[in-house]
Amino acid sequence: MLNSEKLAIAAHLHVLLRRKTGRVTDTEWMASNTEYAAEIIRFARAAAKDDGHADIGEWAAKLELAMEPHHPPRPATRDRLMGMLGATSRPAPFSGAAPGASDSLIGASAQEAHRYIRGIR
Q1: How far apart, in whole angstroms, are the C-alpha atoms of residue 63 and residue 10?
Q2: Structural domain boundaries of the chain?
Q3: Which helix (H) or strand (E) is 39 found in, with range?
Q4: DSSP code for 87
Q5: N or C: which end of the chain has fewer CB within 10 A?
Q6: Prediction pTM value
Q7: Contacts (Cβ under 8 Å, ≥6 apart) of 14
Q8: Burial, 10: exposed, middle or buried (Cβ in 10 Å; 0-12, 13-18, 19+)?
Q9: 40 — phi, psi (to 5°)?
Q10: 3-state secondary structure of 98
């Protein structure tokens, strides 16, 4: 989740806690520090249960979900990828064009290919 989304959830929870319980929190710290966020979530859930503020409980759950660590998938290594493709698979032969060149440059001389990469035609 984006940091701006975490900050928005923390800010909303901050306003609810300030208005309904008088508790003042640090929204930026809440959005970036998982220990502080966990303590605010615990407090918010207790306030929601004891005082009957269901909306505080809902926003505490949103913050808890936002603060869960997100681990992006690790990129496959070349060996694992080749293993998935099969042992007989080989990379495509080099076409002579510069890396990242479009199909229209295949077969062009190195000077022509270099001229158009990252340039306007």
Answers
A1: 7
A2: 3-67, 78-116
A3: helix 34-51
A4: T
A5: C
A6: 0.56
A7: 24, 25, 27, 30
A8: buried
A9: -65, -40
A10: coil
